[in-house]
Amino acid sequence: MKKLKVIFFVIFTVLFYSLISSQIDVAHAANKETSNLLKNGGFEETIESKEWLNSQGPADWSQWKASGDPELVVDNQISHSGKQSIKIQASSDSRASVEQDVMVISGKEYKLSDWVKTDKVTSNHGARLRLTFLGDKKVYEYSNEVTGTSDWKHIEKIVKVPEGYNTVRIQNFLEKGTGTVWFDDIKSVAK
């Protein structure tokens, strides 16, 4: 009788731990599918930086001003969610982005999404996401663009990482043009 209790206890313990382990694996897989690979995608954390208007820039993000004289600022007046967004404002033809490099897996698919608001954006390509796969030769991918004046629009792009690439530069981009664009809540998740 004592042996039977021990056997029952061992079987129960093994089954219990197997069940718990499988639940943890399922939760981990689900979390992996929804984990944002980008840091500070809502632009809520800031650091001191002379590159940015008001000497405050978003932590983990850098800026690139390719042409013109655009102003890039963390905006605490307008946001899609949270308390802040990124604003790029250009009164003359300008080209600029707010960007972050992310490690990716060659051949894997990723879904990128962003919220974009525009005010009088005139440009051939407007405001959009640009992905630059970094390697011996750069490979570019673009989301749909937003031009004119619009309230918050959700844009998405699903991309497959080209073979041989493991880093992508994700850019909240105002292509050569004028106007004001806000970006917020950018995400990149593995599919």
UniProtKB/TrEMBL annotation:
Database matches in Pfam families: CBM_4_9_1 (PF22637)
Gene3D superfamilies for the chain: Galactose-binding domain-like (2.60.120.260)
Annotated Hyaluronate lyase-like N-terminal domain residues: 39-187
Database matches in InterPro entries: Galactose-bd-like_sf (IPR008979), HylB-like_N (IPR054563)
Designated name of the protein: Carbohydrate binding domain-containing protein
Organism: Virgibacillus halodenitrificans
